[in-house]
Amino acid sequence: MFDTIYINNCTGELNHSVIDATSITPADDVGTSKDITLKLPKLLPPGDYTRFILNGPCLWFESWSDNNIKDLSQHIEFYLFEVLSVFRGETRYNAPGGTIDSACAILEFDMIDSWCKSHGKTYSIYTNEYRMLDSLQSTRYAAWPIQCLDTFSLGYAYYKDEDFRPKYKDNIYLPIQYRFNCFTYRWDQHRMFASALLSQQDGNIVTHYHETAGAKLKWPFSMSKYSNRIINAKNALQHLVPLSLESHMTVATKPDQFLPTNPLVLEPNLLEPYYLKSFCSLVCETNYEYPWGQISEKTINAIRFETPFLLLAGPRSLELLQHWGLKTFNTWWDESYDQEIDPVKRMDAVIKIIDSIHRLSINDLTAIKQDMKSVLLHNRNLYRTGEIRKNQIKAK
What are the pLDDT digits (tens) for 141-183? Predict the structure, then answer.
């Protein structure tokens, strides 16, 4: 019997009480929804299931109707790792201007509602998206039982003993080698723009380069003050280092020197020296164009390694960090970009700050980072002590 279902976009560690729905039935073994309904009960190992992980909207889940359904709790709680499937008609909707209009459909939500109605269950939906309902007031989801719960962010803020490294006791005093680091992980439009723009700056950056030719431009940016510069940087990046993270390849680079690194460079501990020798991290979070905030390990990594950060993230992401008790950097640059709903205007505001930092000397940046010391150590210690977890949003 179970009363909790996790809709996740990664598997993690599985055991007898956690089932990853996307791995149970191989894709090439799937026929019609009816076929999947018949196969599923045979594939589940014996045991009482307390959790059930789905990977995004799953057609077979909507059609799953075996005899075990009657044994489920009357009320089921659904925990979403992230909301990715916002559609308008048959097309993925990418929120131009940062707004979600009344014609939009969120497939994860619709799947849950349809499945529960067909089986006579009530439900609650918990999401990682901060202030999501504020953006859904003109949609049919405005009164749905949806609540931000920081469900998976708790895992990002989990501290382990190996995070204490005596040889890096004085991290804050390491010489600045890079103005920026930008570890972009999987490919997306705002991440491509970040890597491209930084790669065109003069020296002192460390980033990942990706192949840009096939990158989908999901949200319009022609109104950006920097649109021509972005296009030129994107085209130059394609010819500079045509590598893709999706092929598990990456490059740590200065503009005039390419330094191949271990393919596992994305592991946080292997990235540590780059954080510690950087003035600032340009963090490209999972969500960008949708009008809600979200924080993942990408921002937490900068915090744990005592690095100030700019966010290319959904609006109010800095506000969410402040809710957790973290301090941000409005003393040193304008963080009003965090309240900007329009993704183009928000990006332009961040680029303006990047340009201002590039105009400063390394000596200037060293002095600024020393001035930030109390903030950086406060944030690091909030993570190390676990205090950050006490401040995260709880169910009401």
Answer: 999 999 998 877 766 666 665 555 545 555 666 889 889 988 8
Q: Under 8 Å CB-to-CB from 346, ≥6 apart: which residues?
A: 98, 315, 337, 340
**Torsion sign, CA atoms 216, 230, 207, 321:** negative
- Domain ranges across the chain: 4-149, 156-390
Q: DSSP secondary structure string, 1-63?
A: ---EEEE-S------TTEEEHHHHS-GGG--SHHHHHHHHHHHSPSS--SEEEE-SS-HHHHH
Paired sense of beta strands 257-260 and 251-254, if any:
antiparallel
CATH of 156-390, one of 3.30.390, 1.10.12, 3.30.70, 3.40.50: 3.40.50
Task: Strands of the chain (E only): list them.
Answer: 4-7, 18-20, 51-54, 75-80, 86-88, 91-92, 104-106, 122-127, 146-148, 178-182, 205-207, 251-254, 257-260, 278-284, 309-312
What is the total residue count of the chain? 396
Query: Which residue do the tokens 């990706």 mark?
Result: 210
Separation of alpha carbons 11 and 19, rounded Å: 9
pLDDT digits (tens, 9 = 90+) for 313-358: 999 999 999 999 999 999 999 999 999 999 999 999 999 999 999 9
- Enter the pTM of the model: 0.83
Give the Cβ contact number of residue 41 at 10 Å: 11
- Read off the tokens for 33: 């929804």
- Regions of the chain short of the pLDDT cut 70: 1-2, 8-72, 154-173, 185, 202-203, 209-210, 240-270, 395-396
How far apart are alpha carbons 66 and 247 in whole angstroms?
39
